[in-house]
């Protein structure tokens, strides 16, 4: 079943964020991935977070209706807290922890040409055994409905270009490629 996020789901969301990362066993600090890709959404936009619950949380979606407002709150309230906890990273990060810490210290805003027509964004992760059951589509539809109700005209997110299965899925649920660079395929959909 899909239900709204509750505070007691935070550990599970962080765990899924780590387990679905490109290198889940490579982190010395297992919370780093969650701090970057889930935590600020749970703090600043919990009303736009939902989980897949089959007796235990097996997946989630988080999002925000206004990317620029969200980025500003992260700059003011989220990243400073983490920067105190995780000292600045080396100029050439090599380990997974160093790469996440680099993001914390040098977070890049979403490209303006993406955000202007697609001001909302999301992150979604499902554990392997949960994929193929319709949960991904249902989570995206639920969040899309919530964002439309909040007045958003469009939604975007970034995908690793190597993640061909995810790219095929997102195209199948109505997202189009907006821009591509070395590290990210930007996908989006207008409402």
How is this structure best summarized?
This protein is an alpha+beta fold. The chain is built from 8 helices and 7 strands; from the N terminus they run E-H-H-H-E-E-H-H-H-E-H-E-H-E-E.
What does this structure look like?
The radius of gyration is 16 Å and the shape is globular. The chain has one domain (2-155): 3-Layer(aba) Sandwich (Aminopeptidase), CATH 3.40.630. The chain contains 8 helices and 7 strands. It has 191 residues and is an alpha+beta fold. The protein has helices at 10-19, 32-37, 39-44, 67-85, 96-105, 112-115, 135-149, 164-172, and strands at residues 2-4, 50-53, 57-64, 120-126, 154-159, 176-180, 185-190. The model has no long low-confidence stretch (mean pLDDT 96). It has a 7-stranded mixed β-sheet, with helices on both faces.
List keywords for this structure.
Aminopeptidase, seven-stranded mixed sheet, alpha+beta, 20% strand, 191 residues, 7 strands
Might you state the CATH topology name? Aminopeptidase
Residue runs with pLDDT of under 50 for 5 or more positions: none
Rg computed from alpha carbons, rounded to a whole number of angstroms: 16 Å
Number of domains: 1
Shape: globular
Largest sheet: 7 strands, mixed
Strand/helix succession: EHHHEEHHHEHEHEE
What is the tally of beta strands? 7
Mean pLDDT: 96
Number of helices: 8
| CATH homologous superfamily annotation | Gcn5-related N-acetyltransferase (GNAT)
The CATH architecture assignment turns out to be: 3-Layer(aba) Sandwich
Instruction: Name the structural class.
Output: alpha+beta
Helical content class: 40-55%
- Estimate the strand proportion: 15-25%
């Amino acid at each position: 079943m899909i239900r709204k996020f509750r505070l007691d789901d935070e550990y599970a969301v962080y765990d899924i964020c780590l387990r679905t990362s490109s290198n889940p066993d490579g982190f010395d600090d297992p919370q780093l991935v969650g701090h970057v890709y889930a935590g600020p959404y749970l703090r600043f936009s919990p009303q736009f977070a939902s989980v897949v619950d089959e007796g235990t949380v097996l997946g989630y979606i988080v999002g925000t209706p206004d990317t620029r407002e969200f980025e500003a709150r992260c700059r003011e309230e989220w990243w400073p807290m983490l920067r105190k906890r995780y000292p600045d990273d080396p100029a050439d990060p090599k380990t997974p922890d160093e790469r996440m810490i680099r993001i914390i210290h040098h977070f890049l805003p979403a490209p303006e040409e993406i955000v202007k027509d697609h001001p909302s964004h999301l992150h979604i992760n499902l554990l392997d055994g949960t994929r193929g059951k319709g949960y991904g589509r249902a989570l995206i539809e639920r969040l899309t409905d919530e964002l439309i109700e909040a007045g958003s005209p469009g939604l975007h997110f970034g995908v690793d270009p190597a993640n061909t299965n995810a790219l095929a899925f997102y195209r199948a649920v109505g997202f189009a490629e907006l821009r591509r660079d070395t590290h990210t395929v930007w996908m989006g959909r207008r409402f």
